[in-house]
Structures are given as C-alpha cells and as structure tokens.
Amino acid sequence: MPFSPFQGFDNQTTTSPSFHARSLNNSSSNTTNHISRNRNLRKEPNTVSGTSSRPTEGLLYFQIHHPVLFSRVIDLLSQFTDLVHLQMSPQKLIIHSVDTTKVVLYELALLEGKAFSYLDSALAFGSYKKRPSMVISSKKVIIPSIFKHVQEVRVGVNLKILAHTLKGLKNQDELFVLIDHSEEVMMMKGAFQESSMEFKDPEIKITVKKKQPDRVFTYSMSQFIINDHELETFEIEQFDNQVQVEILMSTNCFSQIMQDLSQMKGERLKLEIYYEIPSPCHAISGMVQNLGNTLHDSLRLFFKTSKDCLEATIEIQNSAIGTEEDIVIGFTESYSKQLQSGIVTNNTNIENESGNETLNQFEGSKNPYNVTSTISNEYSFRILSILSKASKISDQMLLQICENGPLGVLYGLEEGMGSFQFFVAPYLNDCSSDSDHE
C-alpha cells in the first residue's frame, strides 16, 4: 500500500526531502504537525534565587546514570532542533520531535532504573556533601508524588542550551537534574501568559559533581513555554510493516562510508538495494524451500553520491560473520514471505500455461529468467553525515529501508538503557537539482 505524503509540509518544493509515512510506535498522538517557534519566548536562562527549603510536591529530581552518553545524545539532537518537550513518566524519559526543516523525525526513550533514577526531591536542597550518590543497583524505586495526579509531565527545554551545560562531562562525574513542576508555579505561569506582566519561567537545575578534587557545578536554565497548539509532531504509522530491507552494521563502518563519500561534496546520498528474483526453474525444480536463501544471497547495497558530472559509489555485501565490521543485509520476514509467495504464484501460472516440453528446457539451466529488482531512495547527505557521528553513542546501528518511504535509523544503547531512533524523509523525485533550503 503506497505511502501518502505528510500534510503540513509548507514551503516544500518537489525536490525537497519529505516524509511519505505516518507515526512512531511509542507515541499516542495522532496529530500531523511540526514544532513552530514562538517569537515571544524569552530564550535567556533566568537567574535562580536562593535554594532555601521548599515544598517537594511537584518537583522531579533524578540522576542520569551515564552522563557522558547522555551528553552526546543531547548534543546530537541539538543539531536538529532547539525547543522540545521533555516528557517524564514513572517509567520513561522521552524526547519526541521533528527537526526545523521537517525532514527528520526522532525519538529518544530512556528507561527509569537503567538510564536514570528518580530520587527523593528533598535531597536536592541539602548540602552536596550530605547528598548520597545514587546506587544504580538499588532495589528501592522512588516514584515522585506528582505522578499520583498526572501520568506524564511535559517540560519545555532548549536542547542547545542543555547541550552546552553538559559539555566536558567525564565518566566519573555524577549528573543530577531538578525540575520544578509544582502546581503553584504552573498556575502562575498560565496566569502570566494571559497578562502583560513579566513572569520568571520555572527553572531546571542541573548539578554536576566532579572528583579529584571534589567540586560541584550548578547550572540553572529556564523551562520554556511551548503551548500545545504550537508543538506539532509527525507520526509514522505501521512503519515496521512497510520496511523491506534491514541492514545491521557498526556505527564506525557507517561513519567511514560517509567520510569517504564526503570528498565528493554532494548534496544527496542515494541508497540502492539490488536483488535477483529467481527464474521459474527454481520453483519448477522443487527448490521453493531455498528461495529465501537465494533472495538473501543476491542482496547488494550501494551508497552513491554525485557532484556535477562525477559520481562516487561504494558497494557493500554481506560480511563474513565474526569479523569486527560485520554488515548483515537481509529482507524483513514479512517482505521475504511476500516475495516468495509472488515467485511461487508466478511460477505456478507459468507451469499451468507452458506444458512439460517448455518446462524441461528450464531443467539444468542457469537462471535464464532471473530479474534484477531495485529499492532506491535519496536522502540529504548533510543529515546522514550528522547521524554518522553517533559512533560515539552506540557501537551498532540498524538501517531500515522501504521504497518511497523514510529511512529508519535505530541505535542500540548499552545495558538496555532505552531506544534512540531517527526517521529521515527521502526526496520526492529524481531531479538532479537541490532546493532544500536546509
């Protein structure tokens, strides 16, 4: 079933990349929108007043267990957009957004207990020397009291500012985040939005504990007001059912491929998958059970880019299992079954129409009727170059490819911390000129 284009792609030309599908698996929203910036937002972080004792109702206090990895993820996301909603629930921390050019949809989902843990918010106002470090293996689970009243808290965050505060973190550092989402503050915020009076946005406090020597850095930044009607996101419905080919490779390998092709200074990256449809003699000779292997063995992947009259191509095939740079190219189970079913059906029709004399000509022949088929899309080279920097975040990545649909890029996070995925829109046609205005 063909993809239908997203609505809301204003100011897009026919040569610009654009999504052709709808929805993320973990999202409950069915809207089809994008993030729009409110020019009236104050983007300067507010100065924080003293941290005297305060009520802890409505405060979210948590520790990030892998601060270096978290800082790298935030830095990567900040290259696509700035204002996002940080969505907090008892189980997850989620950032789900679309970039400013509406070409990249991404979702970061970190699991509570693995990637971060909630702490007693009263600890946030004590001396840092008395504040116990969170033990990741602790069996005690703390659920902030605010979740007794709501299932999810959404906080407006500027990723570029957050990325700046997280620079320079080391593995031995400890990272704590305090978010003020108390009812009084939220009511005041709403009241001041409807008036011309100045209002100091509620704060996000970031504390970094460093060692040798022991020292504490505290950063304060504003929560930004992102109204629901201003925050718009794209959804990709049933993407897994649309995927035809999956490519598992190391992030270092992908990074090297992008680095090699960057010498061309092309604006587009073309991904092409070639495979052969077996000839009728396979099914007629009783080789139906081997069709899956035959299809898989014929798979070839090409990365292409061009500039002016020059084109560069890198060909990738399945690696020998056990090597450091394993590359595994394969059809998804559903698409493989679809292909095999089509081959068997077509061959049955040929068998019924041809007669034994013609069929005997197929016996012993070397695939006289093999047909080469192609899955091909073009994507923004600049965007995929940014994603190739994820080699510092994950060792492996999964590319998910479908005809005329977005490119799925899924990274594995260590120790089951969560998921990190991107969807990159393809160009709409094969014109050689680019007018992305990216």
UniProtKB/TrEMBL annotation:
Residues 9-18 have a biased composition (Polar residues). InterPro entries: DNA_clamp_sf (IPR046938), Pr_cel_nuc_antig (IPR000730). Residues 22-35 have a biased composition (Low complexity). Residues 1-53 are annotated as: Disordered. Transmembrane segments: none annotated. This is Checkpoint protein. GO terms for molecular function: DNA binding; DNA polymerase processivity factor activity. One of its GO terms (biological process) is leading strand elongation. It comes from Naegleria fowleri.
